[in-house]
Amino acid sequence: MPLAQSKIYTDEDYYNLPENVRAELIEGRLIYNQAAPSRIHQTILGEFTQL
């Protein structure tokens, strides 16, 4: 039995997602349900940009 072929998604597929869907397109794969970064995470990243 052959392996199932996974779909390769494009930029067009990504931009056609509903606005309320959090997802990323990485190497043709849609990654869903990305959690928003925490405040501490954003604070730490902000410190790096000020170096």
Series of secondary-structure elements, N-terminal to C-terminal: HEEH
Total number of β-strand segments? 2
How much helix is in the residues?
Answer: 25-40%
Largest sheet at a glance? 2 strands, antiparallel
Distance between the termini: 55 Å
Instruction: Give, in spatial order, the strands making up the sheet with the most strands.
Output: 1-2
Tally of alpha and pi helices: 2
Oligomer: single chain
Radius of gyration: 16 Å
SS class: alpha+beta
Strand content: 15-25%
Give the overall pLDDT as a whole number: 88
Low-confidence spans: pLDDT under 50, at least 5 residues?
none
Specify the overall morphology.
Answer: elongated
Task: Characterise this structure.
With 51 residues, the chain is an alpha+beta fold. 31% of the residues lie in helices and 16% in strands. The protein has two helices and two strands, in the order αββα. It has a two-stranded antiparallel ribbon with strand order 1-2. A hairpin with a 2-residue loop joins strand 1 (23-26) and strand 2. The radius of gyration is 16 Å and the shape is elongated.
